[in-house]
């Protein structure tokens, strides 16, 4: 037997805990646990010498992944799980931008200012691919994106109608989400969200009204957007559709976040999922805001404190605090059956790439017409992995991160769990124990 490389040990409220980032098991432990752990480390361990009470602890430790058989190579297993995630063929994930046009002018936007809208031939090509996928894939998921996708409502409803018919015909499951600024939502739009299985609407709020209105502003107008957006979010929530409110946080608005939470409660949005978005200069387009961005470490610690505040203020307790999950890949950019479709039909692996045609992996109108550059762009995404990085190999939260974002100089990037895991686990324990007392 040997001790897992992914154990995280900590103390909280005079108690000792163990977490394993491979299995995501969290346990309150005692001296028996540590005695067994040290015994296994000593290399003089023999299971047959264990007493009955120690056998029970031993089996629990094996089940939680805290100790493993000598033959079990954790890195090789992570590689295997990574390949499984990358090359799954029973699902299709499409992020579709029906238009690059947007009615907002946000300073940190990483997209170009093109007003392109999707043509009929691109729509037909997408439908053909979804139909092919529905015939042999079990799951199809679409994320509507932009620009502001609701500037092209007709395209969304048209494509959704056809997607659903094909999935119903061939027995494939279907779901969708949408990322929108929330300004163009009306009652008909909400009913179409329900009709076309758009199960979650993500809307960005950047702070209290004065901050939000200075950043999330209409193009060519000083008309405020804050009140309109929050009232629309409330209508969506009341209709039974999940709402995710993303608060883009940086050095300029972070002190005002708690004030915003009180405002959200006053609007009746306590059942929305509220979270902090980490603003980063993802492309050359948004380099101007790089000086205001929080480091990953600062963001991670603020994220945990933010969730504690949400709990105290009475937001939906089912969402908080976040609990870590092991990953096979960091995101869809590393998955073979996950693609981003731009309005002109160009395909990408990451939505951050849509402003740069050099990062295209082909065009959906002719999937056989690909250049060597298209091929290698996809290959580089698919072969991105953390297992050649010494820091990643040594890191005890690697299973929660899997190398982070592959767009960061094609190198590994640390994620929030490296800096906030223990504090997040403490917060989760406190919530669970308080709930048990009720």
Summary, kept brief:
By secondary structure, the chain is an alpha/beta fold. The strands form three sheets. It has a nine-stranded mixed β-sheet. The protein has a three-stranded antiparallel β-sheet with strand order 2-3-4, sandwiched between helices. Strands 1-5 form a two-stranded antiparallel ribbon.
Explain what this protein looks like in three dimensions.
The protein is an alpha/beta fold and 438 residues long. Helix content is 39%, strand content 16%. The protein is built from 14 helices and 14 strands. The strands form three sheets. The chain has a nine-stranded mixed beta sheet. Strands 2-3-4 form a three-stranded antiparallel beta sheet, sandwiched between helices. Strands 1-5 form a two-stranded antiparallel ribbon. Helix 9 packs parallel to helix 10 and helix 10 runs parallel beside helix 14. The longest helix is centred in the last third of the chain and has 21 residues, at 417-437. It starts with a strand and ends with a helix.
Q: List the total number of helices.
A: 14
Order of helices and strands: EEEEHHEHEHEHEHEHHEHEHEEEHHHH
Strand line-up across the major sheet:
11-10-9-8-7-6-12-13-14
Apparent shape? globular
Structural class: alpha/beta
Report, as a whole number of angstroms, the end-to-end distance: 41 Å
Portion of residues within helices = 25-40%
pLDDT < 50 runs, ≥5 residues: 283-289
Radius of gyration: 24 Å
Assembly of the depicted chains: single chain
Assess the beta-strand content as a share of residues.
15-25%
Largest sheet: 9 strands, mixed
Would you count the extended β strands for me? 14
Give the rounded overall mean pLDDT: 91
């Amino acid at each position: 037997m040997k001790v897992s490389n992914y154990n995280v040990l900590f103390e909280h409220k005079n108690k000792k805990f163990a977490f394993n980032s491979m299995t995501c098991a969290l346990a309150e432990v005692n001296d028996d646990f540590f005695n067994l752990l040290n015994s296994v480390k000593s290399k003089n361990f023999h299971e047959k010498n264990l007493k009955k009470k120690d056998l029970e602890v031993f089996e629990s430790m094996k089940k939680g992944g805290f100790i493993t058989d000598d033959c079990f190579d954790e890195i090789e297993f992570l590689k295997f799980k990574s390949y499984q995630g990358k090359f799954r063929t029973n699902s299709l994930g499409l992020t579709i931008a029906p238009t690059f046009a947007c009615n907002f002018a946000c300073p940190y936007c990483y997209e170009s200012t093109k007003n392109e809208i999707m043509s009929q031939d691109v729509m037909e090509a997408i439908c053909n691919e979804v139909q092919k996928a529905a015939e042999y894939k079990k799951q199809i998921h679409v994320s509507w994106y932009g620009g502001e996708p609701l500037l092209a409502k007709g395209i969304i409803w048209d494509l959704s109608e056809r997607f659903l018919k094909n999935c119903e015909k061939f027995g494939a499951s279907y779901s969708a989400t949408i990322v929108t600024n929330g300004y163009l939502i009306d009652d008909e739009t909400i009913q179409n969200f329900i009709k076309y299985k758009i199960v979650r609407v993500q809307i960005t709020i950047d702070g209290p009204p004065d901050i939000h209105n200075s950043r999330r502003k209409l193009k060519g107008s000083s008309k405020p957007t804050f009140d309109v957006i929050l009232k629309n979010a409330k209508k969506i929530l009341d209709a039974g559709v999940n709402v995710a409110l993303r608060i883009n946080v940086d050095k300029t608005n972070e002190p005002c976040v708690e004030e915003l939470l009180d405002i959200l409660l006053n609007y009746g949005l306590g059942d929305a999922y509220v979270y902090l978005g980490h603003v980063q200069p993802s492309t050359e387009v948004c380099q101007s805001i790089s000086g205001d961005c929080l480091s990953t470490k600062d963001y991670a610690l603020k994220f945990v404190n933010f969730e504690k505040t949400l709990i105290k203020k009475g937001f939906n307790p089912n969402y908080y605090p976040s609990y870590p999950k092991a990953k096979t890949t960091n995101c869809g950019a590393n998955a073979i059956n996950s693609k981003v479709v731009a309005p002109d039909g160009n395909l990408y692996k990451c939505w951050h790439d849509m402003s740069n045609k050099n990062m295209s992996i082909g065009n959906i109108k002719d999937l056989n017409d690909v250049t060597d550059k298209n091929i290698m762009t996809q290959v580089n995404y698919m072969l991105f992995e953390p297992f050649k990085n010494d820091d990643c190999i040594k890191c005890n939260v690697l299973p929660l991160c899997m190398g982070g974002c592959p767009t960061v100089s094609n190198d590994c990037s640390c994620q929030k769990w490296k800096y906030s895991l223990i504090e997040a686990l403490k917060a989760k324990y406190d919530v669970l124990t308080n709930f048990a007392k009720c």
